[in-house]
Write a structure and sequence with these properties.
The structure is a homodimer of 103-residue chains.
Chain A lengths: L9 E10 L6 H12 L5 E8 L3 E7 L2 H8 L2 H14 E16 L1
Antiparallel strand pairs in A: 1-3, 1-4, 2-3
Helix pairs in contact in A: 1-3
Chain lengths: 103, 103
Amino acid sequence: MLASTPKPPYYAVIFSNTLKDDTEGYQKTAHRMMELAEQYPGFLGVESARNDIGITVSYWKDLESIREWKSNVEHIEAQKLGNKKWYKSYRVRIAKVEREYGI
Amino acid sequence: MLASTPKPPYYAVIFSNTLKDDTEGYQKTAHRMMELAEQYPGFLGVESARNDIGITVSYWKDLESIREWKSNVEHIEAQKLGNKKWYKSYRVRIAKVEREYGI
């Protein structure tokens, strides 16, 4: 599903990654993180796809909302697990959405 | 492959979409568009994944580079075909990358 986001400006966190071979527990944690993110009032939506690489773009009201989400205790634990166990590589890009259009 | 991008700021075009059932010709055109985009001096890299939805994030030096790419004649033809034949829905979000980190 594509995300329905409000009129810009708002923020995007572009999270692209590759996984190691052993992804035990990854799917469950990724799902839980989305469940958790959705509870934040500044969370606007998310889009996610994976084949060779994974891309998850989450949309946020402002930088403060992203900061709060990044510092969620359960999320911090997941980030640690990700760094240690699941991700071969990743990039996080914080970007201000200035314009949006589509069909 | 994850994109190797320079130190921010730079721009991201987040293109998320769903396809119709008949995607004849889509793959070839998508591939050609990437080949073409890479020739632009302002093109910094691209990341792409698809399963339920497709997400292609291309990175650009500045808004002017994105404008030039958007108005490329061959790209305009592809956009028309996409609107008419391939895309069930899409969103294009133009965003300024302010921060980047990763492993």
